[in-house]
Specification:
2 domains, four-stranded antiparallel beta sheet, single chain, eight-stranded mixed beta sheet, 10 helices, Alpha-Beta Plaits, about 375 residues, elongated
């Protein structure tokens, strides 16, 4: 096995961190990764997957399984609050989820195959766009060029602050929750504010909808099943003191551990919107966005992760409950056997999506070694 060049990897990580791009705009990030990994002589490179996605295929000399490892390309719309010399050069865009580190891990793993290809089968390194919006994985899977890969197994990791550095966080079955964004638009009729009786205001319906949606999971799910509806934005009319509003917009995030529970919550929320709109003479529309299915791990694949972690003397932490946040890797796990797991970023490390977060370079080596052991 070729030795890792940590100096080059950390240089890459800091370059990626300094030049972040939002979901769907990762063109330069993808180009940087391509320039780096092409040095290791992949047998095949597939560009433009699901937008700015890119995959590198290393082929063994014998027939065997195809193993895919996924990293994300995109950053977040967050203003960085760090002062180091590689801080984000983009206004209100920064790698606050550690995708710069995830890309570096896969790049380091690819470097190990420069002079020694896999013994058998294929190893695929996929750099996926638009994870943060829940769109990227689905687009990659629907891309006709992805059919050239045909993975047997798919794996991904995510760095996790709050856990000991380089610990491996695993859970068979559901690892992360399903979630989706709900956009409700209520249409009535404006009138003069002195004559509200001449209009049709969505205000009372809006008040009832934002009261009723959050309690939906408690009413329809069993006590042991997790569900959550969070109102994240409400707007009624415009700032015009002479006008009774005729339009309202409500946004909510729905979450559940189980995909079947998400269907129930969705149906119940739609029913409430329909009933309250009809009661107050409103028309309405509902849109869904940022849809993430549950990330459901294959038991055998999680055992591989655990065995390889033990072999490398990495501390293993077994989760009791899934995470409430979502990961669009769940789309891959719906189609292929695989697993997503966590790598601890340090118990006192700043949380993901915080303005002072930065990926800890100390976990690059253990993560590369774990993936290599799994291969």
């Amino acid at each position: 096995m070729q030795e890792l060049n940590f100096e080059e990897l950390i240089k890459l990580r800091k370059e990626l961190h300094k030049n972040p791009e939002l979901a769907g705009k990762e063109k330069n990030t993808s180009a940087r990764i391509k320039n780096f990994i092409e040095n290791f002589n992949p047998d095949e490179t597939i560009t433009g997957l699901g937008g700015n996605g890119i995959a590198f295929i290393f082929k063994g000399s014998n027939e065997g399984k195809t193993i895919l490892f996924r990293s994300e390309l995109d950053a977040l719309p967050i203003q960085e609050q760090n002062d180091f010399d590689y801080k984000s050069s983009a206004d209100n865009v920064a790698h606050k989820c550690g995708h710069d580190g995830h890309m570096t891990i896969l790049s380091g793993l690819a470097s190990l195959f420069k002079n020694q290809k896999p013994e058998k089968g294929k190893v695929v390194f996929l750099f996926q766009p638009a994870e943060e919006t829940g769109e990227g994985a689905k687009r990659v899977l629907e891309d006709k060029n992805f059919s050239r890969i045909k993975p047997d197994y798919v794996f991904a990791l995510h760095n996790l602050p709050g856990f000991p550095l380089s610990s491996v966080i695993v859970k068979p079955g559901i690892f992360a929750a399903a979630s989706k964004g709900m956009i409700i638009k209520l249409y009535g009729k404006t009138s003069h504010a002195s004559e509200p009786e001449n209009g049709i205001t969505p205000t009372p319906a809006t008040a009832l909808i934002i009261e009723k949606l959050p309690v939906v999971p408690n009413k329809i799910l069993s006590k042991n099943n997790f569900g959550l509806v969070t109102i994240i934005h409400v707007r009624i009319g415009d700032v015009a003191f002479g006008t009774t509003p005729g339009y309202a917009e409500i946004m909510a995030t729905l979450r559940s551990y189980k995909n079947e529970d998400m269907k129930q919550i969705t149906t119940a929320c739609e029913k409430i919107v329909k009933e309250e709109s009809e009661k107050y003479g409103l028309s309405y529309s509902i849109e869904w966005t940022e849809e993430f299915p549950s990330s459901i791990n294959n038991d055998d694949c999680i055992e591989v992760v655990k065995k390889c972690s033990e072999k490398l003397n990495l501390n293993i932490i077994d989760l009791e409950k899934p995470f409430k946040w979502s990961e669009d890797f769940g789309h891959f796990l719906e189609k292929y056997k695989g697993a997503i797991f966590g790598i601890g970023s340090g118990k006192d490390h700043p949380d993901l999506h915080n303005p002072d977060y930065d990926f800890p370079d100390e976990i690059i080596g253990p993560s590369v070694n774990l993936f290599y052991s799994m291969i």
